[in-house]
From TrEMBL:
<keyword id="KW-0969">Cilium</keyword>
<dbReference type="GO" id="GO:0071978">
    <property type="term" value="P:bacterial-type flagellum-dependent swarming motility"/>
</dbReference>
<dbReference type="Pfam" id="PF22692">
    <property type="entry name" value="LlgE_F_G_D1"/>
</dbReference>
<dbReference type="Pfam" id="PF07559">
    <property type="entry name" value="FlgE_D2"/>
</dbReference>
<dbReference type="InterPro" id="IPR037925">
    <property type="entry name" value="FlgE/F/G-like"/>
</dbReference>
<dbReference type="InterPro" id="IPR001444">
    <property type="entry name" value="Flag_bb_rod_N"/>
</dbReference>
<dbReference type="Pfam" id="PF00460">
    <property type="entry name" value="Flg_bb_rod"/>
</dbReference>
<feature type="domain" description="Flagellar hook protein FlgE D2">
    <location>
        <begin position="191"/>
        <end position="312"/>
    </location>
</feature>
<dbReference type="InterPro" id="IPR053967">
    <property type="entry name" value="LlgE_F_G-like_D1"/>
</dbReference>
<dbReference type="InterPro" id="IPR020013">
    <property type="entry name" value="Flagellar_FlgE/F/G"/>
</dbReference>
<dbReference type="Pfam" id="PF06429">
    <property type="entry name" value="Flg_bbr_C"/>
</dbReference>
<feature type="domain" description="Flagellar basal-body/hook protein C-terminal">
    <location>
        <begin position="385"/>
        <end position="430"/>
    </location>
</feature>
<comment type="function">
    <text>A flexible structure which links the flagellar filament to the drive apparatus in the basal body.</text>
</comment>
<dbReference type="InterPro" id="IPR037058">
    <property type="entry name" value="Falgellar_hook_FlgE_sf"/>
</dbReference>
<comment type="similarity">
    <text>Belongs to the flagella basal body rod proteins family.</text>
</comment>
<protein>
    <recommendedName>
        <fullName>Flagellar hook protein FlgE</fullName>
    </recommendedName>
</protein>
<dbReference type="InterPro" id="IPR011491">
    <property type="entry name" value="FlgE_D2"/>
</dbReference>
Amino acid sequence: MLRSMFSAISGLRAHQTKMDVTGNNIANVNTVGFKGSQTVFQDTLSQVIRAGGAPAADRGGTNPAQVGLGVKVAAITTNWTQGATQSTGRSTDFMIEGDGFFVTRGNGNEQLFTRAGSLDFDASGKLVTPDGAVLQGWMADADGVVNPNGPIGDLSVPYGQIVAPKASGGGVIAGNLPSNTPVTVPPTKLQTGITMFDAQGVAQKVFYNLSPSPAPAPANTWTVEVAHENGDVLQTFANLRFDTSGKLDTAASGLPVTGLLPAFNPNVDAEVAGVVTAGRYPSWDNPVQIDISGLTQYGDTNTLGAPEQDGYAVGSLQSFQLGADGTIMGVYSNELRQPIGRLALASFNNPGGLEKAGNSSFRVGVNSGVAQVGTAGVGGRGALMSGALEMSNVDLAEEFTGLIVAQRGFQANSRVITSSDEILQDLVNLKR
């Protein structure tokens, strides 16, 4: 039989494989997170018809005469370039910008990896892929602290989860006190306020009254009064000093360098309007310290404000947001924002060595290297985006061109078989 016939048969097989790969790429042109593949051909062994000769003193060298024996598929490689971004607006759709894979727990607790971030909740609140694999990461503790150095586990978003209230333990007063505020009797008060919370989460409105201190107090001295909404004075500090440049002078005020007012306890005995009250706020007996380092005394503009305090009422989880580092930030009904978990991403030394496990997932292969699991944005792992999906990176124009090349290659090899058959027919006809 002719060598050309067997070579052409190998060509048919190789181009059929290329057609299969191209067809699979086109079929997955709209598959989330799909990575296209390319077929790499390689020639097979060659038969040496005449060996080559080395040059000698009386003659030159000769090259070997070799006839190839066909083609084979050397590899089917994966194109790991980034796919296009499709905005979905769904909070459970995640996309990796850069390298890395989502880590999931499949059937039988097998660890799988995927680029497809189309997730949803199951009946137990876990984040799962369309085929039921559970997204992996680290859950936060009751205080919202995530330990990314611990073992990964199932991620869930517990909607309706109740967060216990926290009593206010600190607040902030900031802004500018006009330097031309008149010193009067009774004193001219600049007021701002904020809502604080006791240990049961009950709102307690607190007002800050600041007024210039009259003589014999030194110039640029102010009095700070912290008062409850019911009129109780919780604290009075009459030695708030500013230097001639309008900056807070903590040393002259007798304050710590950080600019904190001495802590007050809302529940201690105090004399209000000549009456000694005891146990005024029994559910709020922790000390509260006010940061005044942001106060200044410039010009005639009053920008006094109380921008923050650290307490909150009881709340329930309403929604969540995903950060670029994979942190799932819970948004509670009491306006608290607290981490509830963090997504884990995996990277590989050779992602081309991963084995496809179906359902847009991969498993560790013998040549992929071990999974290096960690947080997004470090260790070569990409950043995360919520409300978007990574689409297939298949280029239809390129695939259709490959389709034509595969078809013509298949046709050309079939013509070789036809021609070889005609030659054999001519040999048979010699007997006639």
